């Protein structure tokens, strides 16, 4: 393929005042996003989930290679298999495999080896990063894969919040069992599991999760 420029197809520019007003509204809405572990089993339409994936698919990526694949799982039996495999890995992690420093860092978050959200949430989204492409049996190098997939995941999480749903970034370690369970090829690496749904009536979040660094700690201006 060769470079072929086309006119900018969309323009979304706003007046300075409108830009700032809309941005502040968006900031305030995103501040209401929380990582949730307590899900209701209320059904969520497949169309909503697929639309969230479409949003993620618009993310920028190195050389526009879009090195990601999303597996959406609603089947209860498959969710149960994923939970069983994930909890086996988590048992080893929390039994000491994660190391004292990591486990101490997690203590205020209140996590543990039991992962009921993997079966209670109506949907699981498993994110895979394509470490290299496969075309006709030949490998094709992909560029900036972690960065590209990270951007897509951020946009996916924002889309889930925009849909009025909640999610959680779940990263059992190691995660290679997900390739077999999800039927994904060897060139793909599982990155995370996102349970998606509505929060339970008695859902809670750790108090520490409400503590975000102030702007002065995360911003430098020259």
TrEMBL record:
Signal peptide span: none
UniProt-listed Pfam families: Nitroreductase (PF00881)
Q: InterPro entries from the entry?
A: Nitroreductase (IPR029479), Nitroreductase-like (IPR000415), Nitroreductase/BluB (IPR050627)
The yes or no answer to whether the keyword Hydrolase is present is: no
Stretches assigned to the Nitroreductase domain: 31-197
Enumerate the UniProt keywords alphabetically.
Flavoprotein, FMN, Oxidoreductase
**One function term, GO molecular function aspect:** oxidoreductase activity
What name is this protein filed under?
Nitroreductase family protein
Q: Supply the source organism for this entry.
A: Paracoccus onubensis
Q: What is the lineage of its organism?
A: Bacteria, Pseudomonadati, Pseudomonadota, Alphaproteobacteria, Rhodobacterales
